[in-house]
Amino acid sequence: MRPQLVIVGAGPRGTGILERLAANAPELYAGTGLDIHLVDPHPPGSGRIWREAQSPLLWMNSHAEDVTMFTDDTVLMDGPVREGPTLHEWAALGGRTFADRRLQGRYLRWVHERACAELPPGVTVHHHPRRALRITGSPEGRQQVWLEDRPRPLHADLVVLAVGHLDAEPDPAQAGLAAYARAHGLVHLPPDFTADSDLSVLRAGEPVLVRGFGLAFVDLMVLLTEGRGGRYEGDTYLPSGREPVLYVGSRRGVPYHAKIGYDWTGDRPPLPRFLGPAEVRRLLARPDGFDFRRDVWPLVEKELGFAHYHRLFTAHPERTAMPWTAFEERYARTGGPAEAGALIAAAVPDPADRLDLAALDRPLDGVRHTSHEAFQEGLRGYIEDDLARRHDPAFSADLGVFLGLLSVYGQLVRLGNTGTGWHGFFSYLASGPPGPRLRQMLALSRAGLLRFVGADMAVTAEDGLFRATSPTVPDFHVEARALVEARLPEPTVSRARDSLLRELHADGAAETSDGLLRVDPGDGRILDGAGRPHPRRFALGPYTDARTPGAFTRPRTGGPAFRQNDAVARAVLTFVRDRAAGRAAA
């Protein structure tokens, strides 16, 4: 009987696993054959998020030169490197182009087809354009993967879950707002992938409250402005008359930081320095476990500071008051924030050159404006300053921090615990929108179609409407008939609308305190409540506690997602090989 592998999810992660299976098969599997079943209602390669059937107005949030699906020699993995083109090389684009998502979908389809073509003879890939509903079977035997609209299951020796972002049931607060909207004839759009939301219910000229100022908001902004016929002439927006008026706020009250708009020159910071494999091993070996805020965050803070100051001292020494070697030696010995702060104050005269993570994270803390209009002007100034800084190599210490964030995320993946709020903090600093999108925000603000609400935006339902307030402008509030939650659903197992994850949890798969599926950080096997790995079930992706940064990997950054894909592929091939050898011996 030919071995059977089922991969649920045929998007970028499923495609990455397929590529690693092809790369590792010559070494690990010389069997008579293997059937690989890809289960996904969306096209193989692109999946749901990157499918070609979406608006051409929606861009990627990374430069084309920073998007690759292929490994290089910076990836610490056991399998072979198989290099391939970045998006910009494959599409013959300028490296600093922000490609639209339909083009990325075509790139992913090509990567999928190349991976299939590189599989050894006798390995066959089957695509099932359906949803997977549940998995049954004991750990000792074959698994059954039940598909929508199919009476009999797929039988599998192994199952790999790579399903990406999933819809979720609303939490109690969201459910209450949705019920109020139904009772009063209002519009409430819950967290969703914006391209799939029905935006036709948002009427021209009417105010719309938007909670969320990240990448989902950018998509919403684009689809409700250019998507409704408006256009830009330079820094001026010319409306079509079909746009609503967006009132946007969030916990921070500001948009994500713009992508950095210049290239790296000179030496890179030697990372990891204070949070590397040795520190991860020590944390994992603690018999009483570890607390992210108490035990991990100080290492994160010191690592990011090291990356920042390495760049400042080596690229801009005229703005420092001591040699780098002296600073580095003393910085390594500092025992806490107070001691590090005193050293930095002495070594870096200008406060603007110092790294203040708390101020970066919450720039509106304590900020108060006496009028709504004063805040609009103030936040436009904040965005203009961010754009200027993120495109000025005089502030290239910011790029050092970006590299530090990538290094830190790679280590946190090994811990299997990224800490509450870490992913959002990373995205806010390192995975923001293209600079042109922030310039569009400014144009829409000047046109009166985008209004800023402030930090810690609170939404209440009263008097038959939604009302938004913020302590940033204490005497202001706005009421509207429509509320949009501009963010992806939280990747929680227990509230996943897809029955697959809920059934896994009911079958014994463990869930973390923040709702993620627990997996072995080494090879992605799903863990049960006692921490035992399931021998036949693997999972990778944003709903696991081994989630990785961003959707794609920058070339030559070590790519933790590549390392995970490789580990899963090798575990799968080793299992199939050993099973085949056992049958032959019997």
TrEMBL record:
Pfam families associated with the record: NAD_binding_9 (PF13454)
Ranges for domain FAD-dependent urate hydroxylase HpyO/Asp monooxygenase CreE-like FAD/NAD(P)-binding: 6-165
InterPro entries in UniProt: FAD/NAD-bd_sf (IPR036188), HpyO/CreE_NAD-binding (IPR038732), L-asp_N-monooxygenase_NS-form (IPR052189)
Region (Disordered): 524-562
Superkingdom classification of source: Bacteria
Coiled coil spans: none
The protein's name: FAD/NAD(P)-binding protein
Lineage of the species this protein comes from: Bacteria, Bacillati, Actinomycetota, Actinomycetes, Kitasatosporales
